[in-house]
Records
---
Amino acid sequence: MNRKLSEKLSALFSLKIGNISPLLAEPGKIHFGSDSSNLMDDDEIADLSAEFLSLMAELLGSKNPDDRQSPEFHALEMFFASLSHKILMRGGRVEEVVRYTQLLQYTLIEALEKDSGIPFTESRSVLHYFTGVFNELIMAVFRSYLEERERVLEAQAAELRETSTPITEIWDGVLTLPIIGTLDSSRTMLVMEALLSRVAKDHAEVVVMDLTGVQNIDSQVSHHLIQIVRAVQLMGSSAIITGIQPEIARALISLNIDLTGVTTRASLSDGLKEAFRRLGIQVSHKAS
């Protein structure tokens, strides 16, 4: 878009803002959320529309409205990225922000075309300009959505890592770690890192690892398990493995896994008794 046309469009836009604003802020015209819920009330939407028009006026009045790297265009991108984040945080969908962006585009162009005074050939340039701008803004919405989704997924993964390694100090110097599911390489590293950190933090002398929740085992899983045991021993703690099921025991034998020096007990209860014995703690039933 040439400079002369952009100046004319900027002046026209500033003149028409008063007419465009009510069209965008019309109650009920824009709705974020499901039919039974509205994530933004009419006042919020009116404020959004006013802010958008102000930012668009600044872009059109800038030195180069075509510059996608300008501070004015960046401000517009940030406006839509912030809106996308807000809607997603309130339980909305990215499609709703895209529809809002498209509605702004259509309303804006329609209002300007009614009495623009711009020749038809130049109107095509205006249409092309606004289409390009709004396409970029929709991309900003999706970038914000993807970044937010990535942040949420990472938070969920962190929470899963935390819950997948429920290390508990059952007694002073005694830690328990129930292992449920499969130990792959990445999970082994997470479990080992979390466990060794707790061993150092709590000055644990005995770690009881319960395998009751492990349903199958192969050479790789057993190797990961031995890695954890050896790492605990290198930290100066004793490791006790409990809850080995018959099928797991048979698998370990068939795989020729060397458990020399590894203490095993049938159940978590037996493992804790062994841990207490090593610490010189006597546990007895209270007389009734």
---
Amino acid sequence: MSMEKINAAKAEIAATSAYQIITEFFDADSFCEIDAFAKSGEGFAEVVAGYGTVEGMPVYAFAQNSDICGGAMSKAQAAKLRKLYSLALKTGAPVAGFYDSIGGRLTQGTELLAGTGELLRLASKLSGAVPQISVVLGPCLGTNALNAASADIVMMTEDAQLSLDVTGKNAGAQYNASHGNVAVIVKDKAEAVEKARELVTYLPSNNLVPAPQAEDREPDGENTKCIVSKLVDAGSKLRLSDAYGDNARTRLARLGGQVVGVVRTTGGKLDCQSAAKAAKFVRFCDAFSIPVITFVDCAGFESLKSAAKLSAAYAEATTVKLSVVVGEAIGSAYVALAGTGANADVVYALPEAVISPVNIEAAAFILAPDAMKVPASEQQAAAAAFAQENLSAFNAAQNGYVDGIVPFEELRDALLSALDMLLGKRVPTVAKKHCTI
């Protein structure tokens, strides 16, 4: 083929929306395409794939090309993605996928099924070895949705669709976010590309290297009421899965420039969704050795099964784990999130924190019945006074269940010191495949 025809083919591909998206995702002039001229039927394959850098870090990425047969999955597209996944696994670099496809080329029948099945197998093989990000920009239905949802973090634009149902039932962004299928919703494609680039800078290239270090910045301080924002580096907090599991908040952030995972319980009992969200996030952080800082204010769990899953996620995690009791840590909540069950490396508590084996009023009735002989309207206040005197963090510290009682204004320095101390943490584990809880 003459160079004139080759250049014409390049120009045809470069004019598509998928090519524009992927070049915007990568640093300028860093994108190298894989199998640029691969054919699918009479036209080019329905995906643009390759590698480049994001803020100087190597990344593999693909974008389904809705300008070519609607981005429909085909044998050729599956072959390109298999090559990309294999290279990512060999070189230990993250994978970002931009999904926008009307479905699959059904005329290819079982060959298409075999190709998509191989993609799912490779995505599963990559899981826990390199980070995977899915960005859903348009329709993503059927087995295509299964592949997108298998990523570590899934992002959607407001008008995109994600569902196993090829009719698009229950496929909207808000529905998926409220069911825990999507961690981030963005307005449009431009914001999706920008957010995906930002997310890459929080993640290590693979499970054998640390997350990228950034410049140390002071926290927002008095400009926010959020306890986490007052501690982590200014502007570094990245919210995940806010529309799912209201009683637990999960964040990626930086503390002294170091990437950390943050779990914050918001009081009351943890429901099933909140516990499941926290467990999934802890396992993700553990897979890539991202330290986990847990801020505990929790009265227990609503579900035994979800409590067991969350407790197992903490107990099995070998990454650095710091727990801070900022409110109440009652019974199973203390055990699972801050106590021996969580196997936390360091446990701090604020001076006003309360740690109790049962709820505060029950403890007061059991341990100080005379103090509770007051009118019903005054019992809550009497129980709170009893807790501050007898169930304080200081009492727990005296018995060795809290490593330090730290005033809030000193907490950031204490956490930074603990992170530095635990930087070289190494924990041998029992030879097994994985936990079954």
---
Amino acid sequence: MLTATTLEQTREEMHEILRGIVPEVEIDYKAEIAFEINKLKKEKNAIILGHNYMEPALFHSIPDHVGDSLGLSRIAAKADADIIIFCGVEFMAETAKILNPTKTVLLPAAKAGCSLAASITAQDVRNLKAKFPGVPVVTYINTYADVKAETDICCTSGNAAAVINSLDSDSVIFLPDEYLARNVAEQTGKNIIVPTTNGANVTFDTSNPDFNMIGWHGKCEVHDKFSVEDIQNIRLQFPDVAVVSHPECSPEVVQASDFAGSTKEMINYVKDVDAERYLLLTECSMGDNIAAAIPEKDMLRLCSVRCPHMNQITMEETLDALRYNQYEIHIDEDIRQRAAQSVERMIAIG
């Protein structure tokens, strides 16, 4: 968060942080918007939460708090501001409303979806519970409220293994990210099965009786693009590079990386790693944000994958959200209460 109290100070601070990351003419333009936002949020008693995938000019200027899904969920639950603006995608803003229902929660975009969240419905979860009765359901935070409402406990990429290990059950349904499920299955010693699909038909091969994790077929459209070949090519050019991936990448990519973890864990790894340069296999804006925050480390700027949904969140839309209280999040109260139980159980684990 900026400490500036004038427009000129705002420009100076943003140039200091973003020099070499964002073109100077863009910094000047965005500084004017940032100054208006930071002034208006004080007048309206608003708080802005910024996910690690926000574009750099926004990430380093207007949020009161930045972080990953778990960290921002904790902050949203305790926020006492009248208005919470969530600079992230829709399921994140929904989570803020689930945890703090009396507050006005705004998403600064008409629609900022998520390929993972769109990959599963509440009815899909009910069907799975009927097919595998008595098996607890763990759902990734990257889902919509009605799916969370059908869930026993939520998780993030950073605490998924801990959540699974906390259950009093050898078997688990883990939704909806197939790659995260496979990576967590490896961590926790589970034998996983995932469905095959033919149109609307979803079928599981249960001929092997040793399975104890049931996955789904959702994938992040960003992390699905990274390949082992990408890593091999980079290592040929830069043998000393530290390759850091997100566990939404395929198991093959994760295994070929030096480290895999949540966005927060990736940031900490980059800070601490004893390597001259690093490569992030995740959403590109996060790479720029880390490069701005840790300028002494050399990031290989080879990423070309920007989340089209996170990209819907702009400083212009954030200013309009504040001005007009637009794109407010509403959740049916029955769904909200049931979803809150699964999210609060996750937060209790940490």
